[in-house]
Design a protein that fits this description.
The protein is 89% helix and 0% strand. It has 56 residues and is mainly alpha-helical.
């Protein structure tokens, strides 16, 4: 995602201040995004390894 990190941070702060349930939801989403990014990196490594084996 090509999003300005500073803009993203400001948006999160303003949303968190709105309602405690939103803050909790945002925290949950951020945790999920982090997990998915790690999983994606892992899968990309596996794909690269498979492509290298296929080329050999």
């Amino acid at each position: 995602m090509n999003v300005d990190p500073e803009l993203q941070k400001q948006a999160r702060k303003s949303l968190r201040g709105t309602d405690p349930s939103i803050a909790k939801y945002m925290q949950m989403l951020e945790h999920e995004v982090c997990y998915l990014e790690k999983l994606n990196a892992q899968l990309n490594q596996e794909v690269q390894a498979l492509q290298q084996r296929h080329q050999a």
